Amino acid sequence: MIETKDLAKHFQVGRGQILHAVDGISMKIQENEILGLVGESGSGKSTFGKALIGLHPLTSGSTIYNGHTLPTKFNAADHLKYSKELQMIFQDPYSSLNPRMTVLDIVGEGLLIQGKVSRNDVKEQVADWLGKVGLNADHMSRYPHEFSGGQRQRIGIARAMIIQPRFVVCDEPISALDVSVQAQVVNLLEELKNDLGLTMLFIAHDLSMVRYVSDRMAVMYLGSLVESGPADEVFFHPQHPYTKLLVEANPEPDPASERLRQHVPIAGEITSPMNLGAGCRFADRCPQAMDHCRNVTPKITFIAENHTVSCHLFDQS
Amino acid sequence: MADKILEVEDLSVEFATYGGTVKAVRGVSFDVNRGETLAIVGESGCGKSVTVQAIMGIIPMPPGKITGGTAKLNGENILGLPPKEANRFRGVEIGMIFQDPMTSLNPTMTIGDQISETLMVHRGMSYTDASRRAVELLDKTKIAEAAKRAKQYPFEFSGGMLQRAMIAQSLACNPSVLMADEPTTALDVTIQAQILELMAELQRTENMSIILITHDLAVVARMADQVAVMYAGQIVESGSVDDIFYRSSHPYTLGLKEAMPTNKRDGKKTLTPILGSPPDLFHPPTGCGYFARCPYAMAVCEHHQPEEHHLTDSDAEHQARCWLQHEGAPHIKALNQPGADQRD
């Protein structure tokens, strides 16, 4: 349904320095699936999500949506055209809602901009959607500060969904929430996927939650895609050294299995995405790095029909 | 009997606000054994941070007020001491690390100076000696090139490194208790694993007790010996980590477990959210705080504060504040109740 080819987004940060936020990502997302995207902070997950729906102009590469290539830089008309189908739920439910707008204005704004509806219809639809996300119609005249984090997140979901998009980028929609509320939001997203046939990119750093939510899972490191495949495959049979370490670092809510586990944390931290050259991005931290890894960028290798790894250990040649 | 280093009894804390008085902590009691980790778990606003801040004596008063209770460190009450006396133990006997290292360290002082300051104040060391010791401490928390790093400012450190620096600072006076308030919440899983391993290792080498505040049950499973589950300013269940996970005896503990995904391979379990929200602590409920959200609530729960029931299912002390533990209560399949042979 949506596909990227060698998508890259670099930022000029002054003094001729270039920040490689996303570098050459090719990815396919099928109709009505949830693709989970994981990686450490600074790995470019959010930038990728935003670039995918035109919120960042692309540096190079392309995005193909339902057979059409999207413009590399969206102008106002493009935004109007594509926002009907491509929407986003933002990470921070505090800064992504305008504190001076009421919930009715926030949730209904998209409909009004798209036109074709009267103010009364907007009110009706907003009430309807607030109900669907577990709030109620009385909340319409309130302002964002009157809500808790979980409720705000649901306002953000209603705002994205009221347009009835085909594809939604959910950027860490649950990381700011308490455990009990996380389950509510996750269940709501699954429900919307099943009822409305939505396709989603679910960005998060909580591996267990991503595995729970997603059909397929993709792992990013420093702007590049290191592994992707069916969620359970990637989670239980990780192939790339980075995915393996990520899965090992993920604690489990079960004391008995935690006691049995070897705790060998991954050394070092994610390196700076400035002025990157060739070679595997993970080479500096990789326990299995070879000389070759530091000089040549690994290619994508298919190790199963729908399971890819970018690592020289899997090179056929 | 294990060696108790810290005994907290019946601690209550209130905050006077314009909207009235918030009863943030309502009669909390727990013990910490030497060399063990006690995890305090609960949702935001349940009073877990206020509890340790009260013990540490860092609650701003006013608006805060400790309305009752004692906290005995090695048998001596340390609760509500005047600042001068409190300084004998805080930072010395009890070290503390915070959730957000970026805002908890002084941005205008070098990392090394912040650590040496602790040593100069509490140990009366000279600047030169303290600086040398600071580098050793940074080295101990596995910061590479410690001597160079000590001369740097917080903005030059990453989040994980700052948390290491803060641990180094809290270890300066060899505390017997380390209080860690959500130490890894702001960090990535890989860095979280590093910090947790560092804490576990230091605990072994220094024979330190840790009070770990967290909302993440996976972190609890990884680190804790004892667990206290807090809700609405009270401890609703406490016991060994196995008691809490495998013999959950309070519906709230059960609810937290059901709301989290597991890493088990056998298919997906459905996540069950806890509906509703915690009670308003301006007017705490007369009955059980969890009444409004509890799927098993009974008539008695609404107006009568549940007693603390001692369970006899294991060697360790296991307690639950729930009427379902009363001998006359109906049996709930998912819940651990003595006399019923259900276990999950």
**If classified by CATH, what would the architecture of the largest domain in chain A be?**
3-Layer(aba) Sandwich
> In CATH, what is the class of the largest domain in chain A?
Alpha Beta
Average pLDDT of chain A works out at 87
The biggest sheet of chain B, with number of strands, parallel, antiparallel or mixed sense and barrel status, is: 8 strands, mixed
Q: Count up the domains of chain A.
A: 2
CATH topology of the largest domain in chain A: Rossmann fold
What percent strand of chain A?
A: 15-25%
- Write the CATH homologous superfamily of one domain in chain B: P-loop containing nucleotide triphosphate hydrolases
CATH architect. name of one domain in chain B: 3-Layer(aba) Sandwich
Which oligomeric form is depicted? heterodimer
Shape category of chain A: globular
* Average pLDDT over all residues of chain B: 86
Please give the alpha-carbon distance between the first and last residues of chain A.
Answer: 32 Å
**Compute the gyration radius of chain A: what is it?**
21 Å
How does this structure look, described?
The complex is a heterodimer of chains A (317) and B (344). Chain A is α/β, with parallel strands linked by helices and 317 residues long. Helices cover 33% and strands 23% of the residues of chain A. Chain A has helices at 45-52, 76-82, 103-114, 119-132, 149-161, 179-196, 207-213, 231-236, 241-249, 255-260, 291-295, and strands spanning 2-12, 18-29, 34-38, 60-65, 68-69, 86-89, 167-171, 199-203, 216-221, 224-230, 300-304, 307-310. In chain A, the strands form 2 sheets. An 8-stranded mixed β-sheet of chain A has the order 6-7-8-3-9-10-12-11, with helices on both faces. Chain A has a 4-stranded antiparallel β-sheet with strand order 2-1-4-5. In chain A, β11 and β12 form a beta hairpin. Chain B is α/β, with parallel strands linked by helices. Chain B has a domain at 1-36 and 46-81 and 215-344: 3-Layer(aba) Sandwich (Rossmann fold). In chain B, strands 6-7-8-3-9-10-12-11 form an 8-stranded mixed β-sheet, with helices on both faces. The longest helix of chain B has 18 residues, at 189-206. Chain A binds chain B through residues 40-41, 148, 178-184, 186-187, 205-209, 211-212, 232, 235-236, 245-246, 248-258, 263, 265-267, 269-270, and chain B through 43-44, 158, 160-161, 188-194, 196-197, 200, 215-222, 224, 241-242, 245-246, 255-263, 265, 268, 270-275, 277.
